[in-house]
Write a structure and sequence with these properties.
Strand content: 15-25%
Number of domains: 1
Strand order of the largest sheet: 1-2-4-3-5-6-7-8
CATH topology: Rossmann fold
Largest sheet: 8 strands, mixed
CATH architecture: 3-Layer(aba) Sandwich
Radius of gyration: 17 Å
Distance between the termini: 26 Å
Oligomer: single chain
CATH class: Alpha Beta
CATH superfamily: Alpha/Beta hydrolase fold, catalytic domain
Structural class: alpha/beta
Number of helices: 10
Number of strands: 8
Shape: globular
Order of helices and strands: EEEHEHEHEHHHHEHEHH
Length: 254
């Protein structure tokens, strides 16, 4: 997807399609390409899909947190003249979508969560990859998926580069601590936007009970399970992910 990237001012993003806006929010270690199948599918089926690069490693250290990533999303929507959007987030991206919904509910048409943080922060907090140990990082990257082969060498190399750079490590830890501070459990019952939760049955990062808790706490949510699938359903089972989401959007008239 790098050939489709646009850079305009402080924003780097991909965009395609026409129709209601879907803004995709990637995770802490997630590349835009993780959503390629979803981007292509929905941009060809009646939606405008945008994936901004979140400034995880370019904000000043003291501003590297969930709150400022949310403000970045707001400024991106203002720049693109989008009054409201469907927010689709994986892992940290889901958390940003949730916090954004708390702060700016009128700007959220619907929420889509997959492997989202916001309730359970073991995903980032308990065993940050050890610097310099490629085999350990490879093992952690593969554990994200039901099928370890989904973790390509290119993906592992990207994570390895992040954890062996002192500046990016500090910012990654800052985001992890911020995610723990911004637990959303008390806020979810007030969020009435239609919410689609799509979860891998074998998600070892944010386990199935996390999805069940989201379903219990969000008053207007539907939960869909994908078997033989880990933490990134849109990567590992893209056809099923897209099918669930598209049918849900149609059923909810979104």
């Amino acid at each position: 997807m790098t050939d489709k990237l646009k850079t305009e001012g402080k924003f780097t993003y991909v965009e395609a399609g026409e129709g209601p806006a879907i803004i995709v929010l990637h995770g802490l270690m997630g590349a835009l390409s993780n959503f390629e199948a979803t981007f292509n599918y929905f941009s060809n089926n009646g939606y405008k899909v945008l994936i901004p690069e979140l400034p995880l490693y370019t904000l000043p250290l003291l501003k590297t947190n969930v709150k400022n990533l949310t403000l970045f999303l707001k400024s991106f929507m203002t720049y693109k003249k989008i009054d409201s959007a469907i927010l689709l987030g994986n892992s940290l991206g889901g958390h940003i979508g949730l916090y954004f919904t708390k702060q700016f509910p009128e700007k959220v048409t619907a929420l889509v969560l997959t492997g989202s943080s916001g309730l359970y922060e073991k995903a980032m907090g308990d065993s940050f990859p050890k610097r310099g140990n490629y085999e350990y990082i490879e093992q952690k990257a593969r554990a994200v998926f039901y099928d370890p082969a989904v973790a390509t060498k290119e993906m592992v190399d990207g994570v390895y580069e992040i954890v062996n750079n002192r500046a990016t490590v500090l910012k990654t830890l800052a985001i992890a601590k911020s995610a723990i501070r911004h637990n959303m459990a008390n806020d979810l019952p007030k969020m009435t936007q239609p919410t689609c939760i799509i979860w891998g049955k074998q998600d070892a990062v944010t386990p199935p009970e996390v999805a069940e808790d989201f379903k219990k706490l969000l008053p207007n949510a539907d939960l869909f399970w994908i078997d033989k699938c880990g933490h990134a359903a849109m990567m590992e089972q893209p056809e099923q992910f897209n099918k669930f989401l598209h049918e849900w959007l149609i059923s909810r008239k979104i």
